[in-house]
Amino acid sequence: MEVTGAPSNDSKPAVEARLRDTCRVCDSNQLIEVLDLGRQPAANAYIAPGDLHLEEPKFPLTLNLCTNCGQAQLGHVVPADHLYRSYMFYTSTSQTMTEHFAQLLRTNVDEFVSPGGLVVEIGSNDGSALVTLLNDNVRVLGVDPSRNISVVANARGIPTIAEFFTGELAGEIYTTAGPADLIVGCNVLGHVDALDDVCLGLRTLLSESGAFVFEVPYLGDLLDRTEYDTIYHEHLSYFAVKPLAHLFDRHGLRLDRVEFLPVHGGSVRGTVKRGSGWSDQVAEVIDAEEREGRSDPGTFQAFAKRVGDLRARLVDTLVRYSDEGLQVMGYGAPAKASVVLNYCGIGTDLLPTVFDSTPAKQGMHVPGTHQPILDVSAVDEHGPDVLLLLAWNHAEEITRKEGWFLERGGRFLTPHLVES
Ligand code: TYD
Ligand code: ZN
């Protein structure tokens, strides 16, 4: 197994990425590289001003396609403790997402949970979703590996285990709390390197008639909208429905229902039960994916070409704005921002500042390209003409909130060159 990565400095041990040469879903070694986004720092490794002179560890960011099962996935695994070590504590920055998760819990508790039944959330963060169930006649349990965040969750009355969800942990939960009627995992499966072990845990913990409900960004939307900036080291998998259905089936689980949602640039929500195979509705979606060529190497080659074209066009646009004397700044400093700026090589010369509403990010700098991150309340005093909408998945909420900027003649432009 090849090992790659860059040493940071003499005093710290080198952080190394591991090359993964087998598929996370079917274990075959029939992987082909379909996109190379270059060497990049961890997208959430924001830099404190005093650390700007230090060398940043950078890792290859390549996308592989498994030609056996159609799963799209990263070729390199950055150690989890490097990615999540300084995980910042952000309570729900988006009102829309908070309501979205509360709604998801409400609907599924009504459908699957018997009185006094157990609801487990994987990746429960500070418990802000589970807290909405506290007045219901159900038991709740959060699982989240981030220690500082789980302390907050426990303090607000959401019992939370500060560990990764594994087969072993699922066994312990089963022993102490019994089977779960509902297990929820939103935007967690994509972060998991050992998917087999998580499936084993689900199978262990689910009650006979219980359900696992998950959401993941949908590969079809990533391809159709060329959302290459959702590809970063934390996201190891990019799911289509077909590989998911096969994965669950191999573990005695049955993908029963899928629906498509607009969140995070396009997501799929799935409902999984104990059993095997998949439902007719899921079979129809898989047929559609086959017709759309979702696992064809040619689809990915065309995608990679569009990604390269977008980079050239975005840089051209920023240079043109600069020549015209227009001031461009960034709006939002999500992980996606780091991917776009690093891949396109957009430094502080073309984009001097980025604004973000998250207090913990303010005063820090974007990894790799080093733009300072300021509070969104400072947009007005800096007076940009154009805002590069790096948090484009929140476009509706942001353009509503910053309507004054548009009224003043300002323009938003996404990294995919969509203007508003
Ligand atoms: P998000 O897309 O949730 O995160 P990621 O891609 O890193 O998983 O991040 C959205 C970012 O945008 C977050 O840093 C906060 C910022 N933001 C604003 O600055 N203003 C806003 O109105 C909203 C909704 C988000
Ligand atoms: Zn595979």
Task: Describe the fold and architecture.
There is one protein chain. It is built from 13 helices and 19 strands. With about 425 residues, it is α/β, with parallel strands linked by helices. The strands form 4 sheets. Strands 9-8-7-10-11-14-13 form a 7-stranded mixed beta sheet, sandwiched between helices. Helix 4 packs parallel to helix 5 (about 195-205). It is globular. The structure holds thymidine-5'-diphosphate and zinc ion. Thymidine-5'-diphosphate binds near residues 93 and 391.
Keyword list:
420 residues; alpha/beta; 7-stranded mixed β-sheet; 13 helices; disordered N terminus; binds zinc ion
TL;DR of this structure?
The radius of gyration is 22 Å and the shape is globular. It has a 7-stranded mixed β-sheet with strand order 9-8-7-10-11-14-13, sandwiched between helices. The chain is an alpha/beta fold.
What's the topology here?
Blueprint: E1 3-4, E2 17-19, E3 31-40, E4 59-66, E5 72-74, E6 76-77, H1 80-84, H2 95-112, E7 118-122, E8 139-143, H3 147-155, E9 160-161, H4 167-177, E10 180-186, H5 195-205, E11 206-217, H6 219-224, E12 237-238, H7 241-250, E13 253-261, E14 267-274, H8 280-291, H9 297-323, E15 328-331, H10 335-344, E16 354-355, E17 373-374, H11 379-382, E18 386-389, H12 395-401, H13 403-407, E19 411-413
Helix pairs in contact: 4-5
This protein binds thymidine-5'-diphosphate (TYD) and zinc ion.
